[in-house]
């Protein structure tokens, strides 16, 4: 029984692992690999867009780099339109598009904040261009030098980095994001809930086999007690000791005292019969001799 349950368990687990591995490899081969702007520009399955009338749009429209020019032409040809009126609409479109077939291009600072506060989103590729932010001030403003010095001081001391960590990551749920990332990386990974029934069948089979083994042992003890003319508890004690001692391969079927007692009694009976036969024969011989003399 135990061997059968273990065989069934091994068969199901092996089949499940093989099927899961095949599905994982098939999914990995079917999914497009997008790791940057170059890969994005060479395919049309994943649509991509940006903020309408923004700095990112101006960058692509005025770029002289062939990759960015190709991306701009593709974005103009995509139907329906891939341009959004604000960044929130673009982020929502990324979330609601099935199978992740839409990408939204934003400025790096905004992307970092959105990704940090939304575990289901991720940033792909590196920066397309580097520009700095500036604060508009009136001409010849007396505050210009003071503000420049204050910003440089905050940057050199690392204070700006600490502020970024504080406000960019304050709403991030690390446990939730870790579990989401694991789900994305593992794909269709088998969890305990998927194979829990197999373990349940194995446990039930082992339990049934254990109960049957105990019943078979008790039935064997009863047969031994009847065959060897022993009490049930005495036979149970002998059989249990034999079962626990794995080094003993042979067991005594009867206690030594009972066997020797029975042997001595039978020997005495046989000796008496032999002596009686001898005496009877001798008496008959003497009688025959007397008859001859007379």
TrEMBL record:
Q: What is this protein called?
A: Ionotropic glutamate receptor C-terminal domain-containing protein
Which residue ranges traverse the bilayer? 6-25, 198-219
The record's subcellular locations are: Cell membrane
**Which InterPro entries does the UniProt entry name for this protein?**
Iono_Glu_rcpt_met, Ionotropic_Glu_rcpt, Iontro_rcpt_C
Interaction with the cone snail toxin Con-ikot-ikot (site feature) positions: 61, 153
Chief location category: membrane
* Annotated disulfide bonds: 119-177
The yes or no answer to whether the keyword Transmembrane helix is present is yes
Annotated membrane topology: Multi-pass membrane protein
Q: At the top level of its lineage, which domain of life is listed?
A: Eukaryota
Keyword entries, A-Z: Cell membrane, Disulfide bond, Glycoprotein, Ion channel, Ion transport, Ligand-gated ion channel, Membrane, Receptor, Transmembrane, Transmembrane helix, Transport
- Similarity annotation: Belongs to the glutamate-gated ion channel (TC 1.A.10.1) family.
- Do you know which Gene3D superfamilies this protein is assigned to? Periplasmic binding protein-like II
**GO CC annotation, single:** plasma membrane
Concerning Pfam families, the annotation shows: Lig_chan
